[in-house]
Structure formats: C-alpha cells, structure tokens
Design brief:
Elements (H helix, E strand, L loop, with lengths): L21 H7 L10 H17 L5 E5 L3 H12 L5 E6 L2 H12 L3 E6 L8 H9 L6 E7 L1 E2 L4 E2 L2 H10 L5 E5 L18 E5 L11 E5 L1 H7 L11 H10 L9 H17 L1 H16 L3
Parallel strand pairs: 2-3, 2-4, 4-7, 7-8
Antiparallel strand pairs: 1-9, 5-6, 8-9
Length: 289
C-alpha cells in the first residue's frame, strides 16, 4: 500500500527539514517574477544585509546559492582551496563524515581526526598538529559546529584560541547547518573564515538555499584558489553584486520572499531569545520533561 498522509496538516518531528511557519508559507504563495526587474535586486539587497546579522558578522560577504547544505560545503571548499591542499577535518558524526567524503573526492589532502560519535572534536589533537606545523602546510581547519546526527556542539571559540596561540594562518571553515539561528554563533568574534547553513533548518524554510558567508581573508584566498568551480564560483556573484543585479543564475523567487518572512519572524522574536528558547527546550528534553 502506498503511503499517504492523513487528513490535516503534516507535522515534522525531525532535526530538519523543520515545520514551516504559516507566515512563511503565505509569503511564498506567489507567481514567478522577473528576477531582473528592480523589485528583486532591491529585495535581495535587504536579504544579504540581514543574513549577515544572523551570522553575527559585519565584515563577511554573504552568498545565497540555489542549493542544499552539501552545495554550500562544496562552495566553501572550492573557492578557498586548491587540489592537494592539506586540511584538518573532524569526524564526530554522519554529517561530518559526509563532508570529509566530499573533501577527499575533491582531491584535498585530508588529515582526518576521529572522535567517538557522541563526543566533540578532539581539540588536543588539533593543538598538537598546529604546534608541529611550523611550515604552515595546513591550509584549512574544517569543523561542524553542531553535528545533527548526535546533537554534539563543538567549541569554536576554543578552536580560534588554538589557531591564534600558534599564530597559524589556516582558514577556519565551519558547517553551521543545524546551529545558525538555533545556537549562539559569532562569526566575527570567533574568527570564522567561511560559515554555511541551509534554509531547511533553523531558518524554517523549504530546502533550496545554501547560505555561505565568507570573511575578507576567505575572499582574498578565493583569488588564488585553483579548485575547479563554475556554479559555486563566488567571483560570479561578486561581479553581479557590483552591477547591482545580484544574481548570476536564476533564484527561486518564492524562497526569497519566504526568506524575507522568516528573517522578519526571527528579528521580531529576537535572535538571542530564539537561542535561549532552544537552550531551554534542550534542557527540558534532557531532563525528560
């Protein structure tokens, strides 16, 4: 027998995709529009500025790419690194494992640090590797902020402290797919060079937008990175940003209006209030309430 939803609204009870608020659903219920008309660039400009707020950055450059978190991963890697570059990456669950698989298939030299699933990344190993890397052969540290598969959150402030202690220039690339807008995330304060998330998680949208925010250091690295890239190439976006039209490829108009509504809801409740709410619900869940 084929599976059919029961009458009424279907409610999701999984880490993501998540339930979509009514206001967002209504905002997306519209016909297509000409994305080269004045209205869509004007909307996009406000979205880009407001996305920076949820990443807590004033210096980062945001990209809204029609893709999933996996595409955002690839964009972060291929725009900042060259094949053969040595990167340190941590396995703490299924999604960090998948990101490492992508890194290896893109021909990077991946130095894998394994930890027991259910535990955080072993930062003592990171410190040891950085201490012995006086030649700065490590080009990037790749870490998942919150591992969706296990619910474990890594201490990004500590990662930055270790990098700074050894004055190591490696880029810090962070998967914030299940953390941004749900947990405290401070891109500028923690010196994150590229951070990503996906529309279907704490932003409460359908799948379809990969959010990538790059620091000035990452933008500079993209000018010399030799990985092949076309659809995910930041330079295409930057060219259209300068033109004021913003989109090198066709975006989903419906998702853009949905994102506007989702951000409005976030700012109405207050990002810090949302983070506190998630922490409170997590505490209740852990105590079996």
């Amino acid at each position: 027998m084929d599976y059919v939803n029961a009458p009424g609204r279907n409610h999701l009870f999984v880490p993501g995709p998540v339930n979509i608020p009514d206001q967002v659903i209504r905002a997306m219920s519209r016909n297509n529009e000409d994305y080269r008309s004045p209205a869509i660039p004007a909307l996009t400009k406000t979205l880009l500025e407001d996305v920076k707020k949820i990443f807590k950055t004033t210096t980062g450059t945001p990209f809204l790419i029609p893709t999933t978190g996996t595409g955002a991963w690839e964009s972060a890697l291929t725009n900042t690194l060259s094949p053969g570059d040595r990167i340190v990456s941590f396995v703490i669950g299924q999604f960090s494992l998948l990101w490492i698989d992508q890194q290896q298939r893109l021909k990077f030299n991946v130095d894998v640090v394994e930890s027991e699933w259910g535990r955080g990344a072993d930062l003592d190993v990171l410190e040891s590797k950085l201490a012995s890397d006086s030649a700065h052969t490590i080009k990037a540290i790749c870490i998942v902020h919150n591992e969706t598969a296990t619910g474990v959150t890594n201490n990004l402030a500590k990662v930055r402290q270790i990098l700074d202690a050894y004055q190591h220039p490696a880029l810090l690339l962070v998967d914030g797919v299940s953390s941004i807008c749900a947990l405290d995330f401070r891109m500028d304060e923690w010196g994150v060079d590229v951070a990503i998330t996906g529309s279907q998680k704490a932003l409460s949208l359908p799948t379809g937008i990969g959010f990538v925010v790059a620091s000035p250091k990452a933008i500079e690295a993209s000018k010399s990175a030799k990985s092949l890239r076309v659809f995910f190439d930041w330079s295409d976006y930057l060219k259209f940003y300068k033109m004021g039209t913003y989109w090198p490829y066709t975006p989903s108009i419906q998702l853009l209006y949905g994102l506007r509504a989702a951000l409005d809801l976030i700012f109405e409740e207050g990002l810090e209030n949302i983070i506190e709410r998630h922490a409170r619900l997590d505490l209740l869940w852990r105590h079996g309430a």
